[in-house]
Design a protein that fits this description.
Length: about 290
């Protein structure tokens, strides 16, 4: 038991220290996700202000500050809180003989760096796309994912407005993806992580971008806006599930972009019943429904 307690303590304090050092610019720039998130956010927000897609939308749109708080809560505060638990689970799995190489299909360590990064990016993105579908398909998971879909005006910070339980759902499957690669993570994996943050911010931004012919490969704001549409095609529980890549939606026929005006109602039927405040939203999904 002592080693589990030590694992929890070391992971928790290590994450706190790393985050604090990031704030103080005491870590390498390419690993500084604190200031990296701020720089990316400001960059996309400025583009929203200069090139607004929905011109009637305020610079400080509805729930702007709530979404801003979610960004730092999910990306840093919750990461600190849960880091010890993940480390304890890692020790447990190691004790019962499950290692990062248990499910290894390939070993990319000898490949060129660019190929390592591409494969790492594709594998993780597919896992997240698949997880995203589960969040929409199963009512228990959808109760938590509703928080993300409660956005009524889209902007870059909506990217990281999501219930903390989504971290719990995504993490195991992302870990599975890494295990398929033999527990391998490229030395320059920060490029993938920063690219994912940037693409996610753009996808939720008030900017009209389609990427031209690359729209069949890369997710974009026009495509993702319809993922947040209040009204969905009949018989569908969701469309356009892509995270960074749109490729999976086109391959598996979950794509849907009927027009590109940007003027559509966002949310979901019954979204008026979802709590509007942060504290109410983070406990949503655990409460029993009233008869």
């Amino acid at each position: 038991m002592e080693k589990y307690i030590n694992a929890f303590s070391n992971a928790f304090t290590g994450t706190v220290n790393w985050t604090w050092k990031s704030i103080l610019f005491e870590v390498p720039w390419y690993n500084n996700y604190f200031w990296g998130l701020i720089v990316i956010s400001l960059f996309v927000w400025i583009l929203e202000i200069v090139f607004p897609w929905r011109k009637q939308q305020s610079i400080f749109r509805k729930d702007f500050w709530l979404d801003g708080f979610y960004m730092f809560f999910n990306f840093f505060l919750f990461a600190i809180a849960i880091s010890g638990v993940y480390k304890m689970l890692g020790v447990l799995f190691n004790d019962i003989g499950i290692t990062a190489k248990s499910l290894a299909f390939i070993d990319p360590s000898s490949w060129p760096m660019w190929l390592q990064l591409v494969v790492f990016f594709i594998v993780l993105d597919f896992v997240q796309w698949f997880t995203h579908i589960l969040l929409h398909k199963y009512p228990f998971l959808w109760q938590f994912h509703k928080v993300h879909h409660s956005v009524k005006e889209m902007g870059f910070a909506a990217h990281l407005r999501y219930h903390w339980m989504e971290n719990i759902f995504y993490k195991p499957l992302k870990t599975f993806g890494v295990m398929v690669l033999g527990g391998f993570e490229p030395e320059q994996a920060y490029i993938v992580h920063f690219a994912a943050i940037t693409i996610g911010h753009f996808n939720h931004s008030n900017i009209k971008i389609t990427w031209g012919p690359l729209k069949y490969l890369l997710n974009n704001p026009v495509m993702h806006l319809y993922h947040h549409s209040y009204e969905l095609p009949e018989g569908k529980y969701g469309v356009n599930f892509g995270i960074s890549l749109s490729l999976w939606d086109y391959l598996f026929k979950t794509n849907y972009i009927p027009e590109d005006s940007g003027n559509l109602e966002l949310g979901f039927p019954g979204d008026e019943k979802l709590p509007k405040d942060f504290l109410g939203q983070i406990v949503h999904g655990f409460r029993k429904k009233k008869p």
